[in-house]
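Lecture 7 notes: from sequence to structure.

We start with a single chain of 118 residues. Read the sequence below before looking at the structure.
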Amino acid sequence: MVERHLRVAEDIKSIVSEVISKELKERVTLFSIPHVDLTRDMSFAKIYLSFFSKNHNKDFERILNAKGFIRSRLSKQLKLRKVPELIFVMDESIKNGADLIEKINALDVPEENQEENK
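Now the structure, written as tokens:
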């Protein structure tokens, strides 16, 4: 049963990604779906979205507005009796990671080799 859940979650991930990037009227680019969580009965799918653009709030709104369209496309490609309800969540882990790397790079820490030469 666990294998089936993982397979369905991966199918949802790829289908939704394809629909968002190619079939929406208002284009959404520079996004990623890092993870999809399915409930045990597969009635709900929580889809985490990461954005790489500055207008990520507008892109997220576009996706939320197209939720019904995305679900209808999913129902045509997914072979399940009942297609799960879609819940979109903004995942900011990539943005947080980039911010952390920027902060680390901004630190003024002397390199080890420079201290050894003195």
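The helical segments are 2-22, 56-65, 67-77, 93-106, 112-117. Keep this in mind for problem set 3.
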